[in-house]
Amino acid sequence: TAKGQVVYSISEGMEHGAAGGDIAKDLGIDAATLSARKFRMITGSSKQYFNINASTGILTVNEPIDREQLCELKSACLLNYELVLENPLELYRMEFRVLDVNDNSPSFSLSEYHINMPEFLSPGARFTLPSAQDLDEGTNSVQNYTLSPDEHFSLEMQIRGDGSNYPELVLKKALDREQQATHRLVLTAKDGGDPPKSGDVSVVVTVLDTNDNAPEFEHSVYRASVLENSPSGTLVVQVHATDLDEGPNGEIRYSFSNTTSAELQRMFFIHPHTGEVTVNGVLAVQRPLLEMLIEARDNGAFAMSSTAKLLVEITDVNNHGPEITITSLSSPIPEDAVPGTVIALLSILDKDPGENGKVTCQIPDNLPFQLKPSLENYYSLVTSGLLDRELISGYNITITATDLGSPSITAQKTLWVQISDVNDNPPVFGAETFDVFVEENNPLGAFLYQVSASDLDMSENGRISYTLRNSTVAGSALGSFLSVSSTNGSIYAKRAFDFEQLRSFHFQVEAKDNGSPALSAAITVNVYISDQNDNAPTILYPISQNGSVAVEVVPRLADEDYLVTKVVADDEDNAENAWLSFHLAHSSDSTLFHLAPHSGELRTTRSMRSTDFLKHKVVVVVRDHGDPPLSSTVTVGILLADTLPQVLPDFDDSGVPQPLLNATNIYLIASLACVSCIFAVFLLFLAIARLCRCRSRCCGCCCGSADDYKRYCYSVHMLPSSHLPPDMLEVTGVGKLTHTYLYRASVGLG
User: Is the pLDDT of residue 498 over 90?
Assistant: First the structure.
């Protein structure tokens, strides 16, 4: 059972009153309500094969079914019934698959089949044997053939161009008419039933002497089509066969094979000489495809023959118009009926087969209704839009059914449907969703957004109140985050949002009118929380524990661009507030290290030297791009060592060597050098002046009067300090200044 349809499998030949199924149970219907709901079974068959017990809902066989009589040669035999219930209107389709019972044995059209064989035929010659007919289908039909044992013949199955099998008699040993002029064989056809059934036919082989070429058709299968109302004499097809023999042995006569049914032989006529197949009577058949076997036989003394299959398709003529039947109608209907509400059930049937029996059904486009196919040949008239009794209180619906024949035939039927009034206008929002953006750390009670809905109804039916639909946000009730004004739809925040904890959420606001019953609508509000720069970067590596300096060991003579360490940091903020850059805030030797601003890699600027200090300290600042920016620092101690020491040294500020030369020291040294040079020049000038005075006095002592006797003469000798006593300077006359030495002097008389 599926989608209002139940399928039963019924074996043919079941007796009257046999149970076929529990229709009430299978369709989920209360059997006690069948009579009250005026159930009825509708079928297109001329016989009522089934009944339903009104009190129990049991489906029983009303008349035994002969599958072969009902469906002839169809592969699937189906009977379609429709069960219609009212109050409320319901339609169910019942499909009965009539299962074949192996109640027919294979049979041949003739009791004895004669074959004339020239004795000169070589082994391997083939002759078509008659095919058996079995009215059963599937595995119950003919499955295989057997041949009575004979040393001259064997049986082989062949396949025609359309895929059907047929038996062939194969000569396996050359014939000798003088020894045996007639061979009697038995061909047995078996079906696949359980137990299997079989049928026999005698095959009499007469050995002849001449005419060794059988006629051959141009095609093994001929196909043709003819209109069902074609008059007698209408040409269907012309078959043609050739025979390589000459004279009477090559003259061919055409006829229908004995296996072709007598009914088809009465409907068609084949000209014995031309092979033209024409209509010979009224084509009153229910099958769209007819199959016939045509035999071509030569006029030799020992005639030979061959067969070809003719498939004739009967083309339907559109001679029946559609018939529209109103099975059920519900009127009036409320104006709040949802789209898809079933109003009426229609049965539309066209007796023509094929395209001529296919029907298209439609109603005017300007109506809020549409036709939907329900089951086969049934349509449901349903609403396709909203109804408004204040605008239109009723509709005249014209149903037009047109078949696909050429020319087509059209039928019409008109329905009157009344509309009853209800509260049919719910509140309507301008959009299904709306996005609200709010910055984190918002104040309590901040206004977020105002939703607004409109209702076309009036008075109480148009008065709208707003509520928050129950939901949770981050595990908490929505009411702990937001509130809404029931009168104007204003939404307020009841707490401050934190972007790092909650980035977005959504909720629904419901608008409900005051009608009876009340109608409502909802809008989805998406809240997106924007980030503020309220989190400083967190340094993940290197880590300073308990205020100590993180230490990195670098080889004593590391090369240029050696990776000392990589500073790794994270920021809980988002976007540019979490974009980090790395900077050197301090370095004990600014010429020795540099820091990559984006990757945080600390590398050597040049190769290490043996004169470099063993301990260095750098301070790294990690800064985000927020407004204002936030930053964090980490101090890294760098130890130049080829092996890891057992105890790491202290990297306090007092322990880290400072550079000897900086800008201030250079200025002091230059100033001291200038003062020293000026002082040295002054001493030299003073010494030269005193020497000149001494020489002038000595000249006066030698050449002057006795009054000058007590005057002293001085002379200074400048010698290396290693050649003089520490406290004595020898005066020997005018000395000579040669080099710069340490000067010490003493004064003596004479």
Answer: no
Q: Which of 479, 538, 552 is nearest to 509 (CA)?
A: 479
CA nearest 96: which of 11, 4, 2? 11
Which residues face 295 on adjacent strands?
255, 307
Q: How confident is the model at residue 586 (pLDDT cuts 50, 70, 90)?
A: confident
Q: What is the CATH number of domain 538-640?
A: 2.60.40.60
The CATH label, of 3.20.20.70, 3.90.550.10, 3.40.50.720, 2.60.40.60, for the domain at 323-420 is: 2.60.40.60
DSSP letters spanning 509-574: EEEE-S-SS--EEEEEEEEEEEP-S----EEEES---TTPPEEEEE-TTPPTT-EEEE-EEE-SS-
- Domain 217-315 in CATH 2.60.40.60: yes
H helix intervals, 584-629: none
Same CATH topology for 112-208 and 538-640: the answer is yes
Q: Tell which CATH architecture fits domain 112-208.
A: Sandwich (2.60)
The Cβ of residue 577 has, within 10 Å, a number of other Cβ atoms equal to 20
What is the fold, at CATH topology level, of the domain defined by 9-99?
A: Immunoglobulin-like (2.60.40)
pTM value > 0.70: no
Buried-state track 252-264, b at ≥16 Cβ within 10 A, e below 16: bbbebbebbeeeb
Residue 698: pLDDT band (50, 70, 90) is low
With a pLDDT cut of 90, the percent of the chain lying above it is 16
Helix (H, G, I), strand (E, B) or coil at 690: helix
Helices (H) and strands (E) in the chain, counts: 4, 51
